[in-house]
Design goal:
Chain lengths: 433, 298
């Protein structure tokens, strides 16, 4: 794991003189951003794990994938307690484990499992969590994600996103037998299932704010149209099929509007907002250049979008009210496109061009001018999308000649490839909580 | 220069006064004797350069002669007064002596008569008393000799005992004094040592070694703090640390903190992770309790 230790400087201020002893204060102004060492002890004997599901391993993998934790290897565990009462804290401290998750999975023999788990701070010996989850066999994976979420939040103070889902496009086969699939999977890439498939291209999946539906572009009728599909029922509805281009749908935070890109007869692309109830359109940009890839601000009053009005593509922001003027946000590099706003709108992720390669970069949106930070090192990194807790960005990249999905922590410290499924994986979109 | 003035102040004063007196004399003489010849001389006592030296010496001589004449007159008068007073005194003394001598002679005669009478009576009485005394003395002599002998022995024993006690007391006293002296010296030495140590400790606590110790603590805690996402700029937390000799942390308590649970926990953990804390370069710098203040600046 890549470990970037931030430079640490401590400013010390101490009063001199006789009273200094009592007032001895060492000031700490920076810390490490390394992963926290913890141990997730197996919840069940190997036979039961093999026969059912190794929940503790999933918890451990989730936490590791977040980049925030460094789970201990099982073979390094000198004991495997299942309850807090059996933890020898000194031993785990010697093993440099700051936290320990212990649990006990039992089954009544039928398809019914009970997991009791506890989280302890090894250093202070405090019990931080003690919960019980019941599940059937297929639900054990989900139970593991829930445990990982709880542990993540308890220790870091931010909500875990392990129980969330991702959507992406998977392309199988070669022309003329290409097959496009719109997929939804667990955040760890597992449990993938097909939402929609077509022999014509599928593009730009976008989650509704409540996670119940996806909007996407389909070329199934030769020309691009925007569809909205409810996940539970599979019901789909074409919401935009104007002449020319219909692309890049984006849901407003309240789920009532869809921002999208439409074209004039001359082929000029501009950003519009469509009221989902009335299908009424409001034009937001009006520029001879290409304006595309809209993305809503947190308050729903502005749109971020990509425009080449100044030459190369750059990111702009514009209010949605008449007369609002676009403001350019990116100035570094000749190429900044496909932006996504972090959930708290503190950060913007986008694709930049660097050394002839396309990479994922971020930029701070708080306060004045900030330098962009390039997070990835690939050649064809594309389509960044924030996890709903803002801690991780999922993006598309190429690995050994095929399209795969990858994760990078929002601070760039940790990068991981998601387990690849078959086909070329493209355009990931991280769903809401 | 001030030293010189102080040292020769009398000589200087004298010199100044003498000059002043001379100048005054010159002025007076000039006014009296050479008023006509020197009408343009200003009456400045120290402006001597314009005065003619011959006139000056003449004036000085006149002044000196006059002073001598007056002194002679005064002396003659004083001598005459003294002679008269001495004659009066002599006469009074002679009168007083004569009266005293007469009184003494009368008293002596009276006393001689009384003594003579008393002497004859006393002689008779003495003769009787001596006789009785002599007999009694002879009778008592034997007994007395024995008693004296006993007393002497007792006295000797007592004295020996006394001397022994005194010797013992003195020895004890000497021992005590020596002990006291030793204790006093030790106390003083200890006090001196303590003072020296306090001075040294104080010097150490405000010197470069203290900075070194703080740097060591900094290094250790900086590597130990895994900063959670919630520990942003603006976080300000104080954690009180208790350590034992050897640096092992026995408690870490966040006392003031505007952060969330995760931030507090990360801070306490940082302290425990840093345990054992580095030993100070000088034991005088060791603190059982002190604080870290966590407030990230970026």
């Amino acid at each position: 794991m890549k470990k970037l230790l931030s430079h640490v400087a401590l400013i010390v201020c101490v009063a001199l003189g006789a009273s200094a002893h009592a007032d001895f204060v060492v000031e700490v102004t920076r810390g490490q951003s390394e992963a926290i060492p913890l141990a997730v002890v197996p919840f069940a004997p190997p036979e039961l794990n093999a026969a059912s599901f190794d929940v503790a391993q999933l918890v451990s993998d989730d936490l590791a994938r977040s980049g925030r934790f460094k789970p201990m290897d099982r073979k390094d565990m000198i004991e495997q307690p299942h309850t807090g009462a059996n933890i020898t804290f000194d031993d785990w401290k010697r093993l440099n484990s700051d936290y320990i998750v212990v649990g006990n999975m039992t089954t009544d023999g039928a398809d019914h499992f009970t997991i009791r788990y506890e989280l302890y701070n090894v250093l202070t010996r405090q019990s931080l969590l003690a919960f019980q989850i019941t599940s059937n066999r297929p639900g054990l994976r989900s139970a593991g994600h829930q445990i990982a979420d709880a542990v993540f939040e308890k220790i870091l103070g931010i909500k875990g996103a392990f129980s969330t889902r991702i959507a992406y496009i998977s392309v199988l086969g070669r022309l003329p037998n290409k097959n496009y699939q719109l997929m939804v999977a667990d955040a760890d890439g597992e449990n993938a299932r097909i939402v929609m498939q077509s022999r014509e291209p599928l593009m730009s999946p976008a989650w509704s704010p409540d996670g119940s539906a996806l909007a996407y572009v389909s070329f199934e009728q030769r020309l691009p149209s925007i569809y909205v599909q409810t996940l539970k029922t599979g019901e789909r509805r074409r919401v935009s099929a104007h002449a020319g281009v219909n692309q890049a749908p984006a849901w407003s935070p309240d789920g009532k509007k869809l921002a999208m890109v439409l074209s004039t007869r001359e082929g000029n692309l501009d950003v519009y907002i469509m009221d989902m109830a009335t299908q009424a359109l409001t034009r937001i940009t009006d520029d001879p250049g290409i304006d595309t890839e809209p993305q809503w601000s947190k308050d729903g009053q502005s749109l971020y979008f990509t425009s080449d009005r100044a030459g190369g593509p750059q990111i702009y922001k514009v209010g949605i009210h008449p007369g609002d003027k676009p403001r350019r946000l990116t100035f570094q590099g000749s190429y900044s496109a496909r932006s996504r706003v972090s959930p708290d709108e503190s950060q913007l992720a986008f694709v930049t061009q660097e050394e002839g390669a396309f990479r994922i970069a971020t930029m701070d949106l708080r306060g004045g001018h900030s330098d962009m930070q390039v997070l990835t090192k690939g050649r064809f990194d594309a389509s960044p999308s924030y996890a709903p807790n803002g801690a991780v960005i999922i993006y598309a990249t190429r690995d050994k000649g095929r399209g795969v999905l990858a994760l990078v922590s929002a601070d760039g410290r940790v990068q991981q490839l998601l387990a690849p499924s078959e086909g070329e994986m493209q355009e990931p979109a991280w769903g809401p909580f | 220069m001030p030293g010189f003035l102080r040292e020769h102040s009398w000589s200087l004063a004298f010199s100044v006064l003498l000059h002043a007196a001379l100048a005054a004399a010159f002025l007076v003489a000039a006014l009296i004797t050479v008023n006509k010849t020197l009408p343009t001389v200003l009456p400045l006592p120290v402006d001597g350069v314009v005065v003619d030296s011959q006139v000056l010496s003449a004036a000085q001589k006149t002044l000196t002669d006059r002073a001598e004449q007056e002194a002679a007159r005064a002396k003659a008068a004083a001598d005459a007064r003294a002679a008269a007073e001495a004659a009066v005194k002599e006469k009074a003394a002679a009168d007083q002596k004569q009266a005293q001598d007469e009184a003494d002679a009368q008293a002596k005669a009276k006393v001689a008569a009384q003594v003579s009478a008393a002497k004859s009576a006393a002689a008779a009485e003495q003769a009787r008393a001596d006789d009785a005394k002599k007999r009694a003395a002879e009778a008592d002599q034997a007994a007395a000799a024995k008693r004296a002998q006993d007393a002497q022995r007792a006295e000797d024993a007592k004295r020996a005992e006394q001397q022994k006690r005194e010797a013992e007391a003195k020895a004890a006293d000497d021992a005590k004094k020596a002990a006291d002296q030793r204790a006093k010296s030790e106390r003083e030495a200890e006090l001196k040592r303590q003072l020296a140590e306090e001075e040294r400790v104080s010097a150490v606590q405000s010197g470069p070694l203290r900075d070194q110790y703080i740097a060591q603590l900094q290094n250790r805690i900086q590597r130990a703090w895994i900063r959670p996402p919630s520990a942003r700029v603006g976080l300000d937390c104080l954690v009180q640390v208790t350590q034992v000799a050897g640096g092992e942390v026995t408690s870490a308590q966040v006392t003031q903190c505007n952060g969330d649970t995760a931030a507090r926990q990360s801070i306490e953990n940082a302290v425990y992770r840093a345990s054992p804390l580095p030993s100070p370069p000088d034991p005088a710098l060791f603190m059982k309790t002190f604080s870290f203040r966590f407030h990230p600046d970026q």
